[in-house]
Write a structure and sequence with these properties.
The structure is a single chain. By secondary structure, the chain is of the alpha/beta class. Helices cover about 40% and strands about 20% of the residues. α1 crosses α3 and α2 packs across α3.
Length: about 325
């Protein structure tokens, strides 16, 4: 029985599929299946079984998952203790939804690590469904994005959702309220985080009663804005992030009925007694003027007096 096998089992149990566990671990599905098979043989129990609705834990699997999770957490504690003994920087693993990872997290982490040099940070893209499992199993220390039930989630920043269109859109320049029915023939373009069922963007589209057949997903917010500027549809957008495109005239904000909509990004971690020191420091940093300044700027810049060369930051998915 190995730590790798236990980690694979816990993620399959939490996420409900080998495919999801493999995506989180960044390995192939056969690698997760092989680890799970080896653990089954060692323990003499199927641990999980397939049902019509997904994966279901056997009685033995239900007993094992809590113990296995504790072992995975202890391994993370052991790794952190050795790094401290060696004088190595503390690792801070951050996961964020695609929009936050694209625009907000990198400059925010640069500003944080500039004033906390004993921390080495990495940023990963994750969907909301994976974030809880990543935090509980110590594969990540901090999550930026939606509120995560069962974890210590607090508001990180309020943002405003608006609807943008290209400058040649039929309602570009209008000041009168645009009813949703007037956009019935428009496609609504989303980035990956906006496409998630639990996202603020999808909730806004539900409130606006946008039909599923009119929703299209692009690989990034930048790709969405480029497509909108070319006239391929309209898009929900975070007002301060898209302000440069609006100021340059490439995009316009449409006065759609029911918008703008105020929403929050949250920072989520384990509870105080279990989270890493670096995660606690980052949470404290988020309430500082420097952090607020970075998060509210579309270009992610920082005041010149506070600039420091960036530390190593990895983007992974």
């Amino acid at each position: 029985m190995t730590l790798t096998q236990l980690e694979a089992f816990v993620l399959v149990a939490r996420l409900g599929s080998v495919k999801s566990a493999a995506a989180v671990l960044g390995v192939s599905e056969p690698a997760v299946s092989n680890a799970l098979a080896a653990l089954r043989v060692h323990l003499g129990d199927p641990l999980v079984s397939r049902t019509s609705t997904g994966m279901e834990l056997t009685p033995g699997g239900q007993r094992l998952v809590g113990i296995a999770s504790q072992m995975v957490n202890l391994a993370a504690d052991a790794e952190a203790a050795i790094r401290r003994a060696q004088g190595a920087p503390e690792l801070l693993r951050i996961v964020a939804t695609s929009t936050v990872a694209e625009f907000v997290a990198p400059p925010l982490v640069d500003a944080f690590t500039a004033r906390t040099p004993a921390v080495e940070a990495s940023i990963g893209v994750s969907n909301a469904g994976e974030m809880t499992a990543l935090l509980l199993d110590r594969l990540a220390d901090v999550a930026f994005g939606p509120r995560l039930p069962g974890l210590d989630s607090v508001p990180m920043m309020r943002h405003r959702l608006v609807v943008v269109a290209g400058k040649r859109h039929q309602f570009a320049g209008t000041t009168a309220e645009v009813p949703l029915a007037a956009l019935a023939d428009n496609d609504w373009l989303l980035d990956p985080s906006g496409a998630e069922a639990v996202s603020d963007v999808r909730r806004m589209l539900v409130e606006l009663r946008v039909p599923e057949r009119r929703i299209r997903v692009f690989p990034s917010a930048s790709a969405v804005w480029a497509a909108v500027a070319e006239g391929y549809g309209v898009a929900p957008a975070i007002a301060h992030l898209v302000s440069r495109e609006v100021d340059d005239g490439r995009l316009v904000v449409l006065p759609v009925r029911g918008t703008p909509v105020d929403r929050y990004w949250y920072v989520s971690t384990l509870e105080a007694g279990r989270r890493s020191p670096a995660a606690t420091k980052l949470r404290s940093f988020l309430s500082t003027p420097d952090a607020m300044y970075v998060m509210h700027r579309a270009d992610g810049s920082v005041p010149v007096a506070h600039f420091r060369p960036p530390v190593y930051v990895t983007i992974w998915s």
